[in-house]
Design goal:
It is built from 4 helices and 15 strands. By secondary structure, the protein is an alpha/beta fold. It has 2 domains: 111 residues, Translation factors (Elongation Factor Tu (Ef-tu), domain 3, Beta Barrel), CATH 2.40.30.10; 130 residues, Nucleotide-binding domain of ferredoxin-NADP reductase (FNR) module (Rossmann fold, 3-Layer(aba) Sandwich). The strands form 3 sheets. It has a 7-stranded antiparallel β-sheet with strand order 5-4-8-2-3-7-6. Strands 12-11-10-13-14-15 form a 6-stranded mixed β-sheet, sandwiched between helices. A two-stranded antiparallel ribbon has the order 1-9. A hairpin with a 2-residue loop joins strand 2 and strand 3. The radius of gyration is 19 Å and the shape is globular.
């Protein structure tokens, strides 16, 4: 009989077949000036599963200006879901408004109860166990849905630090968690620096990483995430296997999601 304890910190990858589903807007919240939360209802969620806090589903956004009238596809993280109750919640970061708004932002701003939206996925999940000694989560507004899910799911008392770049202080979010949460909000307003400089300076100000085994998660604009990842690996000497960094968007490009671990 093998009495050896199981190996800790094992990240599990789960693959699944993707299928399309139709969601219907049930209600809308203006969570902060730059974040709109839309609650969807659906009778089409049988088998829907999102095991990773940074899972992505594909949204098929109606777009009359697209090629041949085809919908635009955008990746979003399910902020919450209950397949049994037939509900999915998605947070939309409102980067721009008016004529400059992208199709997803424009759709979210115009959405009303009863509107329908088609989704696909998630095609897979990366499940990070809650057995690390501490967590460090870094990102911009687009990372907040994943960060919120992580905070809500962590065990009581585990130290977790978040560094989040937002437009201004009004975009801070209240998130219920049992973890020992140390929140650092970085405002662009009046800062006079770009995103990479602001987040990198905040990370450097934190000094050395805590003792023990920690998990670092980064999501932001691709070049920003790449810069932060390099600092964590090369300067802070954090193990690569306990780090995940993603470019959730790319400056000047539509529908760009960059996995920096590939």
């Amino acid at each position: 009989m093998n009495d050896m304890p199981p190996t800790r910190h094992q990240v599990t990858r789960v693959r699944r077949e993707s299928r399309r589903r139709v969601l219907r807007v049930a209600s809308i919240e203006q969570l902060t000036p730059q974040m709109r939360r839309i609650h969807f209802a659906s009778s089409d969620l049988d088998g829907f599963e999102s095991l990773g806090v940074d899972d992505h589903i594909k949204l098929f956004i109606p777009n009359s200006l697209g090629a041949n009238g085809k919908p635009c596809m955008r990746d979003y993280t399910p902020r919450a879901y209950d397949a049994a109750q037939g509900s999915v919640t998605i947070d939309f970061a409102l980067h721009q408004a008016g004529n400059d708004a992208g199709p997803a932002t424009a759709w979210a701003l115009a959405a009303k109860p009863g509107d329908e939206l088609e989704i696909g996925g998630p095609r897979g999940s990366m499940v990070v166990p809650d057995d690390f000694d501490w967590y460090l989560l870094i990102g911009d507004e687009t990372a907040l849905p994943s960060i919120g899910r992580r905070l809500e799911g962590l065990r009581a008392g585990v130290p977790v630090k978040t560094i989040v770049l937002i437009g201004n202080d009004a975009d801070r979010q209240e998130i219920a968690t049992k973890a020992a949460w140390d929140a650092l909000w970085i405002s662009r307003e009046g800062a006079g620096q770009d995103d990479p400089a602001l987040l990198l300076a905040a990370l450097k100000d934190c000094g050395e990483l805590p003792e023990g085994d920690g998990y670092v998660w980064i999501a932001a604009e691709a070049q920003v995430a790449r810069t932060l990842r390099a600092h964590v690996l090369d300067t802070l000497q954090h193990p690569k296997t306990w780090l995940r960094a993603s470019g959730y968007w790319m400056l000047g490009e539509a529908d760009a999601h960059v996995n920096l671990e590939a």
